[in-house]
Structures are given as structure tokens and as C-alpha cells.
Amino acid sequence: MHRFHSISVVASLFVFWLVLSGYFTPFLMSAGLASSVLVVWFAHRMSVIDREGHPLELRGGVLSYWPWLIVEIVKSAWTVSKIIMHPRLPISPTMLRVKMTQTSSVGQVMYANSITLTPGTISVAIEGDEILVHALTQAGADDLAGGEMDRRVSTCEVRA
Amino acid sequence: MMYAVVVGALLVSLCLLLVRALLGPTVFDRALAGNAIGTVAMLLLAIFQFVSGRPEFVDLALVYGLLNIVGTIAVQKFFRYGDLGEPGVADEEHRL
Amino acid sequence: MSAAIDILSMILMSVGGVFCVIGAIGVLRMPGFYTRMHAASVIDTLGASLIIVGLLLQSGFTLASGKLLILWLLIFFCSPTASHSLANAAHRRGVIPWQSDQGAKSSSKN
Lengths: 160, 96, 110
Known about the structure:
The complex is a heterotrimer. In chain A, strand 2 and strand 3 (130-135) form a beta hairpin. In chain A, 62% of the residues lie in helices and 12% in strands. Chain A has a three-stranded antiparallel sheet. In chain A, helix 4 (105-117) packs antiparallel against helix 6 (148-158). The mean pLDDT of chain A is 85. Chain A has two domains: 2-45, no CATH class; 57-158, no CATH class. By secondary structure, chain A is mostly helical. Chain B has three helices and no strands. In chain B, helix 2 (27-52) packs antiparallel against helix 3 (57-81). Chain B starts with a helix and ends in a 15-residue tail after the last helix. Helix content of chain C is 86%, strand content 0%. Chain C has four helices and no strands. The longest helix of chain C has 30 residues, at 63-92. Chain C starts with a helix and ends with a helix. Mean pLDDT of chain C is 84; it is low at 103-110. The interface between B and C is large, with 48 and 51 residues.
């Protein structure tokens, strides 16, 4: 599993190199592959590479979570846009604490980033297993406190 | 010209954000406006690739985006700790 | 066929541009620092995504579209991080959130 993880890091670095460089001659491609392998080897020796940086085990869950998140982002961005263009600016900003049920730090980061990515809610601080969230409207805060996003991130994490 | 609308809209939003960066009562407002200006400039560079027909500009957009994020985090770190050399560990007691 | 794709991508990009302008107006209009952040995240998410999807339609299946996808991933992974670090710094520095009761008072007068 450890070896498989390293090979996957090398593969993704190589694909990244290929997309950025755009050279497809054999010499340059082998040079790119060699540099990806060298980078991963050095990173292993420096032990700066870990499972969190390349969470391979999330690949299944993420694929079902992202479409839902994108729909959610579009809906809340539309709500926020309507609020901005409303002549009276009907906002009711609230601070609330949301409980996280994720156990790993990758899951917690995923949840906090999803909260921030959705317009209308921003994760301000993380205190223990709670996130301090600033919400633009009371309705958005209630929506988040309902905990659907938390549940989905947790299933995504557990499925791994 | 098919890019005229989107380029015009982006330039208008750039101007509006610039006004917020100049007005901004706190330094965080200015940093926020700077971050948003960076995003808009990144999009402008990505579009400019198609306007000018030179594919290098999307690389510039990527580099600009990376610099934008590093810059925003550096600014927030400076104004949070008052020092860029601070290790900034999460559980460390913060200095004000 | 290509004309249809052109029109679709133009519509997507124009709508994205409109969302960018709306976000910028929000950054200008909103009271208080935290509420401005919500407006800025409209630019980062919907505005940027629509424009990049429009450009992806324009570029087709080339190397440029791969770079645009990387740009999209960069925005989606890094802009919430930057926003969170800004909000966290403002919170630690004691920036007081704009209170809703001011709004409630002024709106109850209306």
C-alpha cells in the first residue's frame, strides 16, 4: 500500500508536469518522469510526504461528494447574489458554532473548506471539534446547523 | 467581439474592488479586496490567452494565482502575528 | 455546431462576468468585514467557474484546457484557504462582526 501510494504521487506529479510543459518528445518525457521520481524520493528522505498531502483513500467518496457540493455552491451563490442586488440589503449576520463529526484532519479540512467555499458561510476558527462559522443570513446558518454537509463529508470519509 | 462583454465586466469589477481597497476601513478589508482583485486578474489573463492567441498567458494566470494566494497568506500572517518569521503553530498562544 | 458552442461559451462567460460584477458590488456595499467576505466568495466560486467553463468550451480538448482545469482546481482548493486565513486573522485581531441588531433596528423603522 505504501509503495502504491508513492507510485500514485509520482504519476500525478508526472501528469502535472506533462500538462504544464506540453513537450511530448521521448527525451523530455523521460526527463520529466525522472524529475518526478527524484522529487518523491527526496520528499521521502526528508519525510515531508505523508498520507494527508495525497489522500488517495478519499478518491471514491470525493467523486460523489463534489457534484453535490457544486450544486450547493451554485444555489447559495445565487441566494447571496440576490441579497447583494436587493435594494434594502436584507442580511442578518450571525456567528454560530458547528459540531464536526469527522475524525481525521483531512475530513475536518474538507468540511471547513466546503463551508468557506459555499458563499454565505465562512469558517472563522476551529476550536476542538467545533467550527466557528460566520453566516450572512439566519437562514443560511440554520441550513448549516441542519448538518447535511457534515453528514456527507463524514460518509465520504468513512467510505475510505 | 465575443470576449468584449466578459472583459468589460471583469474590468468594471476590478474598478469596484479597487475602490474598496482604497476605502477599506481596516487592513483586512484591503487584503480581501486585494485577494479578489488577484482572482479577477487571473481570470483576465486566462481570457487574454484567447484574445491574443498566445497560449503562454494561461501559465501567467497560474503563476499569478499562486502568487496571489501566497501573498494573501503572507499579509494575513504579518497582521496576525506582526512578524513573518513566526512559526504560527495552531495551538500556540497568539501574540497581539 | 461550432457556432452553437461559441454562443454557449459566450453566454456562460457573460453570465460569469455579471456574477463577478455582482460580487464586486457586494464587496463595495456590504457593511463590515465578514459580510464583505461573503460577497467576495461569489467572485471566487460562481463567477470564476462560469468564466473558466466558457473558456474550456472555447479551447476544446487541448493542452490549454488542461491548464484551465488546473487553474480551476487551484481556485477551488486555495481560495477557501486564503479566505479562512483572512477571516481567522481578523477574528484573532478582534475585528468585531457587524451586528444584525443594527440592521433589525433600522429595518423596523422602515
